[in-house]
Amino acid sequence: MLTHSIIIDIHISAAEYMKLYEGVAKNVNTRSRDGRRIQFPALILQPFVTRSGVKGSFVIDFDQAMKFKSIRRL
């Protein structure tokens, strides 16, 4: 099965992530390194949350139907 990957650079403060965690917002909207707009569920970032929030570069993999498959830190 073919996968599509997208690279994002993200910095979400702890306060911003709390809004996502509390359900005030459910999705993260950002741009990929190649300029595409991307929206994904905030919950996929949960393994990467620290006391200061989420910061770093990540690769998100999607299947052919553009459904989330995996995320990993670069």
Question: What is the gist of this entry?
Answer:
The chain has 74 residues and is mainly β.
Description:
The strands form 2 sheets. This protein has a 3-stranded antiparallel β-sheet. The protein has a two-stranded antiparallel sheet with strand order 2-3. It has 74 residues and is mainly beta. The mean pLDDT is 89. The longest helix has 8 residues, at 14-21. Helices cover 11% and strands 49% of the residues. Strand 2 (27-31) and strand 3 form a beta hairpin. The chain is built from 1 helix and 5 strands; from the N terminus they run βαββββ.
Outline the fold blueprint.
Layout: E1 4-13, H1 14-21, E2 27-31, E3 37-41, E4 53-62, E5 68-73
Antiparallel strand pairs: 1-4, 2-3, 4-5
State Rg.
12 Å
Distance between the termini: 23 Å
Provide mean pLDDT, rounded.
Answer: 89
Spatial order of the strands in the main sheet? 1-4-5
Which properties best describe this structure?
74 residues; two-stranded antiparallel sheet
